[in-house]
Specification:
Layout lengths: L5 H32 L17 H15 L6 H14 L5 H5 L2 H17 L7 H24 L3 H9 L1 H4 L1 H10 L3 H16 L3 H5 L2 H10 L4 E5 L9 H5 L22 H5 L6 E5 L2 E4 L1 H21 L9 H7 L10 E2 L3 E2 L13
Antiparallel strand pairs: 1-2, 2-3, 4-5
Helix pairs in contact: 1-5, 1-15, 2-3, 2-6, 2-7, 3-12, 3-15, 5-10, 6-12
């Protein structure tokens, strides 16, 4: 499809670029952590982009920011990436999942591998599909409850200032670098499931996708079908990764739509399916991709320009904390509150 349809090729180029950039960031971060664990001077600087894998910290930072508390300076890039994902999905419906997310790219690639190996991917029975789709919403509900309901703003500040949060990125790396048998088993199930069932992780288990899907309901730019020119060939429905009945919808308002435009690409009737704002202002397919990615860049670059990208934790503090990362000081109770705390220097700003 990518060879035949330029918009799919353009979207996949961006997917690949973001994936390999994430891989590059992960490599730099690994080298940085390993050097600190040996007590050596890191050969590279800590890349702030790694904070994109700290959604809990980012959700708390978002709550603090919306309450008027400013950008918390410990992991500001995490907040920037979260806002970028939300806002691009609030412009072009849930486009973060199909254009930027590196995990979404891997899930899509595994599905394409499955089609090459078996000639197809499988669809789960409807009752099982509905049950499993609820999992990502339950996970999202838990995280929102844990960070926005069960904790006061004072507790949120305490967590964001805590020793644990200051090295949460290192803890996340070690979680995958030193996985338990359960972690390996779960990852194995997700990989095999993604080969057998298209978008297995994204469709059933990703709370991040559920979050941006909610904001996607607000998006002005959604797929719109012209029923007067539609031939009901159903090609759009067959290629839809969200399994939506696109050939029956005048405007796709589903939480599951990722704005990938695969349906637009395969439609044999010119302008029958288009990415439009409120059934007006149609965009050319490639322009829809560029608009979505541009919103993400505007947000993240804006944070950089404003000085809210690199955190305030100094290298000297990392050099002290990382070698003792397995101390009880850096563990959780109940998933949220640190076991113990230590005095944290007053925050002097977000720059």
């Amino acid at each position: 499809m990518a060879r035949r349809y330029p918009v799919i090729r353009t979207r996949r180029y961006w997917q690949g670029a973001f994936f390999f950039w994430t891989l590059f960031i992960g490599t730099l971060f690994t080298l940085w952590v390993l050097a600190h664990m040996r007590g050596a001077t890191p050969p590279v600087n800590r890349p702030p982009g790694v904070e994109g894998f700290l959604p809990i910290s980012a959700l708390m930072s978002l709550r603090l920011w919306l309450s008027g508390g400013g950008v918390h300076p410990v992991h500001p890039a995490g907040l920037a990436i979260l806002l970028g994902a939300i806002l691009m999905s609030a412009v072009v419906a849930r486009s973060f999942c199909s254009h930027v997310c590196p995990v979404g790219a891997v899930s899509e690639w595994l599905g394409r591998l499955g089609r090459r190996l078996m000639g197809r991917t499988w669809e789960l029975p409807r009752f099982l599909d509905v049950i499993l789709r609820s999992v990502k919403w339950l996970l999202l509900a838990f995280f929102v409850w844990a960070t926005w309901v069960s904790m006061s703003l004072t507790q949120v500040r305490h967590f964001l200032d805590s020793p644990y949060n200051r090295v949460a990125d290192v803890k996340m790396l070690l979680f995958f670098a030193q996985p338990s048998r359960v972690t390996i088993a779960v990852l194995g199930v997700l990989v095999v499931g993604s080969v057998l069932v298209r978008d297995f992780w994204c469709r059933y288990f990703c709370p991040y996708g559920a979050l941006v899907g909610v904001f996607g309901l607000l998006a002005p730019f959604k797929i719109t079908r012209n029923p007067q020119t539609c031939t009901s060939c159903q090609l759009c429905t067959k290629v839809c990764p969200a399994r939506l009945p696109v050939h029956r919808l005048e405007r796709v308002r589903s939480l599951e739509c990722t704005g990938c435009q695969d349906c637009v690409a395969v439609c044999p009737v010119s302008h029958c399916l288009r990415l439009t704002a409120y059934s007006r202002f149609p965009l050319r397919p490639a322009h829809g991709v560029l608009l979505a990615v541009a919103v993400y860049f505007v947000v993240t670059v804006g944070f950089r320009v404003a000085g809210h990208w690199r955190g305030i934790v100094p290298e000297e503090e990392y050099a002290r904390r990382i070698p003792e990362i397995h101390s009880p000081l850096y563990t959780h109770v109940g998933g949220m509150a640190p076991v113990e705390s230590e005095p944290v220097p007053p925050l002097k700003g977000a720059h």
